[in-house]
Amino acid sequence: MSPRVAGIDPGTVSFDVCGLDGGELHFEETFVSSEVGADPKPFVEAIVQHGPLDLVLGPAGYGLPLVPASRIGPAEVSLMLLLRKEEPGARGGIAGMRRIIQALVEAGLPVIFGPGVIHLPTVPAHRKWNRIDMGTADKVGSVALCIDDQVRRLRVPYHEASFIMLELGGAFSAAVAVDQGQVTDGIGGTSGPIGAQSCGALDGELAYLLGPSLSRATLFAGGALNPRGDRDLASAAALAALRRDSSLRDGWEAIEESATKAVLALTATLPSPREVLVAGRLAQAPGLLDALARRLRQVAPVRPVAGLGSRAKAAAQGAALLADGLAGGAHAPLVECMRLREARGSALDYLRVPGSGRIQLA
Fold first, then answer.
1. Rounded to whole angstroms, how far apart are CA atoms 11 and 324?
2. Are 134 and 346 in contact (CB under 8 A)?
3. Whole domain around residue 57: which residue ranges?
4. Residues near 163 by beta carbon (within 8 Å), at least 6 away in sequence
5. Band of pLDDT at residue 89, cut at 50, 70 and 90
6. Cβ of 254: how many Cβ atoms within 10 Å?
7. b/e per residue, 161-183, with b = 16+ CB within 10 A?
């Protein structure tokens, strides 16, 4: 069987889609996220024109356990977006995400919405306690690309893949541990390292003091390089200019140091990773990989993940690999190794904090 599939990455800066035909790169497109949110039609049409498609792994936010478009209703959308009931219009980093999901479903595309790290059975339950963001669904896509990259490059079977992935995006930073080809732990962008735009994990005292002013927008602000979300991080040239900007020296130091801490934290559960693989927009910044390699030299070699193409980001390419595997294509063994079909539950299942039972989603 040679399925034709696509994978989507709903990034804060860009919305990317990657298509495969028979397991090989077929097309890749990138769009400005704010423009897709305002009008999803051109984005959806760009996917439709490459059809017919057998499967599309859609933009699932915090994730669902492989739920097809035919079963998507208000409750499922709420679990992907995690907006409080009193804040239904919150931007949430990707304008119009609800409209985008609706447009994909209404287009009749064979969309399925996949899991985040917390949905995977390969992560022990005790690591999930009081966690929601251990790595969103797009991070699972990035992990899939990293596994595929390491397997092809080192000529090892899937079950020998071992690494810690750092994804340093245009807004968030996250880290995920992979052992024996399976996700075993993760530190998500809203619960981990400071990002270029996002604040990363909030001090509990700060969250308390912010009180009613703590909103979804808070999570997308206060970062090390772009705290107000008004700087251009879209191109390699823009990143190079930011890297040279002396006023951002402390910001880059914060990014490097915080990412290093995330890797070191994950060595508590994966003591000897084969590599540290770096994905995300900031990986293009001159000297960043070298800086991380120096900081992590006692842990493992640091490498950029090798992608399938040159335009779509790692998460979209990895999502396409998973879509290919789910459709019975050449990457079916990757899906089986990751135990993706065994994903279960919701991102809210492991909360033990008093009051969490009263959470109401928009």
1. 21
2. no
3. 4-358
4. 146, 150, 178, 273, 274, 275, 276, 277, 300
5. low
6. 19
7. bbbbbbbbbbbbbbbbbbbebbb
In the prediction, which pLDDT does 93 show? 46
The angle at the Cα of 188, spanning 220 to 122, to the nearest 5 degrees, equals 155
Q: According to the model, what pLDDT value does residue 228 have?
A: 93
Residue 92 reports pLDDT greater than 70:
no
CATH of the domain at 34: 3.30.420.40
Q: What are phi and psi of 168, to 5 degrees?
A: -110, 90
Instruction: Tell me the per-residue pLDDT of 304-327, one tens digit each, with 9 for 90 and over.
Output: 999 887 788 999 999 999 999 999
Number of domains forming the structure of the chain:
1
Strands across the sheet containing 163-168: 182-187, 173-179, 163-168, 275-279, 302-304
- Nearest partner of 151 among 141, 140, 163, judged by Cα: 163
Per-residue pLDDT band for 90 (boundaries 50, 70, 90) equals: low
Distance CA 186, CA 165 (A): 9
Burial class of residue 247, CB neighbours in 10 A (0-12, 13-18, 19+) = exposed
Which tokens is 7 given?
């994978």
CA proximity to 331, closest of 3, 104, 112, 13: 3
Euclidean distance between CA atoms 117 and 120, whole angstroms: 6
Cα 134 from Cα 188, distance rounded (Å): 4
For the stretch 225-269, pLDDT in tens is 999 999 989 888 999 999 999 999 999 999 999 999 999 999 999
Both tokens of 111, joined, read 């969309």
